[in-house]
Amino acid sequence: MPVLNYGKRMAKFAMRPPERDAKINLLVGSVRSGKTWGLHSKILYLCDYPVQGRRLLTGVSKASIKTNVLTDLFALIGNNYKYNSQSGELRLFNSDWIVYGAHDEGSEKYLRGATIGAAVCDEVILMPQSYFQMLLTRLSPTGSRLYGSTNADNSEHWLKREYLDNEQLVEDGLLWSESFTMEDNPNLDPDYVAAQKKLYTGVFYDRMILGLWNMAGGACYADAWGPWTQYTDVERPVGLYGAGGFQDHLIGVDYGTTNPCVFLDAIDDGRTVWFDNEYYWSAVKEQRSKTDAEYVADLKKFIAESNCKQTPRVLVDPSAASFRAAIQADGSIYLMDECDNTVLDGIRRTASALKQCKIRFHKARCPMSAREHVTFAWDKEAAKKGEEKPIKRGDHSCDAARYVVNTVFNDWRLAA
Q1: Domain range spanning residue 99?
Q2: Any residues with CB less than 8 A from the CB of 278 and at least 6 apart, and which?
């Protein structure tokens, strides 16, 4: 059974009864800083808190709430609960709760007409603003309370701009917030903390490790790309292409018709992924577009010319439906059914892998990959609006590499 062990700063919040809390209470900061443990204590307090209205647990989805909050909470309280994952009805001791997911703008309809006395919110930055605003309007009973946890994000995010930076809310006693880092969590092993710090670089390190709210700007891989990211035949491990020299062979594909089409030949030796060759066709530069059938023929030739003779797994963005269909119709290429094209997590993983020299590009055979990874940049205008995304220009090799990284690198491998 887990034990609620708090650092000094978190203990002040966790042990404070709801009567002494503000209307809105937000725990912000880095990953693994103990924010959810602090919410566990409040949930237990709220079971006996004398307030009218419903008690609500909410987050991006019921599944995320189960993973992030309820699993440890249930382990903490033993058999003193009943939970229906379909309806979201939850019984904690003698207290009735409801669990709602808030995955899109339409989720606020679940709150209409409800009277809520206590709300606990997981991952607030991932909630739609309309949902959060609707939730606040439902906290009408005297003594009603909202508690939330969140990691840091873009400094222009609505939560930061309209609530955390709202001095009037603080002066009126309506808002309390405090920022925490992993150093505030006494439950973490120092080796684990060191491993977590390897997972992030650049803007992601500032937010997830330092707990800073900042705007993404400049090159996405500004502090990750360096001389260590490229290799020559002399630096390549002896026997990489032979039996026992590698564990996996993959081809990352970023399909394009008017935009460039890119294939990247990736050889995974278990620690490092070696991007050994690239195919780059720009219809604009070459002044000729290719058909899907021509691209399939080019892909087959690219695979046949690979230095690694194991049949590769080919990763194609799910949105490239026509090209995927052409590959399947050919029947001679091992096309993976699913390709993880997650953008922000993929950029974070790629930056971490680059920084740790866990992915490398052949200096002579991957010139466009080198060029695009150096210039790949955040969209500053979108960031000013609180939207996090890279500029969709000169990103084709970056996307192809990201599909490979998302497939072979989980956080455990990056932290190892």
Answers
A1: 8-188
A2: 262, 263, 264, 265, 365, 366, 367, 368, 369, 397
Q: Which of 61, 6, 80 has the alpha carbon at shortest distance from 38?
A: 6
The pTM is what? 0.81
Q: What are phi and psi of 156, to 5 degrees?
A: -100, 10
CA distance 207 to 199: 12
Of all residues in the chain, the percent with pLDDT exceeding 70 is: 99
Q: Is residue 65 part of a domain?
A: yes
pLDDT at 162 over 80: yes
The answer, yes or no, to whether residue 387 has pLDDT greater than 90, is: no
Q: Which of 213-222, 351-360, 364-373 bottoms out in mean pLDDT, i.e. has the lowest?
A: 213-222
The DSSP letter of residue 77 is: H
Count Cα neighbours of 131 within 13 Å in the Cβ-side half-sphere: 23
Helices 292-304 and 321-330 sit at what angle, rounded to 10 degrees? Answer: 60
In three-state secondary structure terms, 126 is helix
Specify if 214 maps to a domain: no
Domain count, the chain: 2
Q: How far apart are CA 101 and CA 107, in angstroms?
A: 7
Whether the pLDDT of residue 2 is over 80: the answer is no
